[in-house]
Amino acid sequence: MHQFSANSAGASARAALWSWHAGDGVLVIRADPGNPLASLDGRWTLQALLEQFDGLARMRIATPLKSGRPGDPVDIRVTLLNGAPAHFFGAFHDLGVARGLIVSAAASERRVHGESNVEPVFQPIRRLDTLDVAGFEALARFRTPDGKLVGADTLVGLGADTDWTAIAPVMLAQSAATLAALRSEGRNVFMQVNLSAAEIARPELVEEVAAIIRDADLPHGVLRVELTEQAALRDFEGALGALAAFRAAGAGIVLDDFGAGHSSFAWLAEIPADGVKLDPKLCRMIGQPRACRIVTALTGLIRGLGMTVTAEGIEDKVVAGELHAIGCDFVQGYAYDMPLRLQDIMVAFDPLADRP
Q1: Using an 8 Å Cβ cutoff, are 182 and 189 in contact?
Q2: By 3-state DSSP, what share of the chain in percent is helix, strand and coil, each rounded to 5?
């Protein structure tokens, strides 16, 4: 994830990172010079920090920080002593430990996006025990001038124009609308949307996600943000704050491609995730004894932390069966489903036995 430095997305969006440790009673805030929240930069006792806000805001901050439990969101609107409004977003990921973002009023205004040629397609995610559809991953595709639907790499090769800054909000809004329609028909499913490092680094996207979830009237956690470990590890502290803020906004969190690159167990310990997707290469190695022991131990660890495990990129049903045997919860891949266009999405719920 991009650093929240003076010339970064975080600073331009007028946001600061915060973390709270109840054990030592200290709240740490990271805000760069030039940021309207720069006066809050530093280490604060709770009492000293409360003195930076108006009287009505103090109780709204103190109560949740003192009494928060793992998984609890922090969603507090405050006013600084200079009269400037701000928004605390975050969540507790462990006993007495919380983190998130402070977003200034300038960043909290919902952005109006122009038209975008991005369209989601939907790949089903199935329960490994029953093979019923549990949810979908929304994958970005782009409509070319001649009407074809292509991936981002193809679009760039064609030299087509698109508003890249609008991709995440449009994908999230369209995915949320599809999810709301499915759930209104009694389909108890979730929807996952992959966000890039640059998108996670835009704190104003948190406000947009909160509005999208509210407008679609979705329960907490059924619209989920996927983040790859490479994005998280570029700025670990920044990723922790941003993801805690997304959780407070009502989104679920999924850690994608775990086991690729330089996986960190601190990632599992610190990020308030609902689920983990195992890297496809690691999943495909399940037939090798050493790899099987590693995946078995990793799956047990993740589930022991209260997160689900998805095997991604599975093209062989035999491999899927082996992953089910060691405890994986979900499967996603061509062994069962190709990505579906919106008009074809209901096909996913047809019995697999009825397919040609």
Answers
A1: yes
A2: 40, 25, 35
CA–CA separation, 124 vs 149, rounded Å? Answer: 19
Tokens 């991009």 correspond to what residue? 2
d(CA 156, CA 219): 36
- Global pTM? 0.81
Q: Where in the chain are all domains bearing CATH 3.20.20.450? A: 118-354
- 93-97: which pairs have CB atoms within 8 A and are 24 or more residues apart? 93/240, 93/244, 93/270, 93/271, 93/272, 94/70, 94/269, 95/22, 95/69, 95/70, 96/21, 96/22, 96/23, 96/68, 97/19, 97/20, 97/21, 97/22
Q: Distance between alpha carbon 66 and the CA centroid of its chain, in Å? A: 26
What's the burial of 304, exposed, middle or buried (CB within 10 Å: 0-12/13-18/19+)? exposed
Determine contact, residues 335/133, Cβ cutoff 8 Å. Answer: no
Per residue in 117-173, pLDDT (tens digit) is 788 999 999 999 999 999 999 998 887 777 777 776 554 444 444 555 568 888 999
CATH topology of domain 118-354: TIM Barrel (3.20.20)
Q: What is the CATH number of domain 9-108?
A: 3.30.450.310
Beta carbons within 8 Å of 348's beta carbon, 6+ residues apart: 122, 124, 133, 136, 337, 340
Give the Cα separation of 88 and 71 in Å (integer): 16
Which residue bears the tokens 């009494």? 67
Residue 259, both tokens: 């086991």
**Interstrand relation of 223-228 and 252-258 (parallel, antiparallel or unpaired):** parallel
List where CATH 3.30.450.310 sits in the chain: 9-108
* Residues 44 and 26: beta-carbon distance below 8 Å: yes
CB atoms within 10 A of CB 129: 10
- pLDDT tens across 184-225, in order? 999 999 999 998 767 777 777 888 899 999 999 999 999 999
Eight-state DSSP code of residue 340 = B
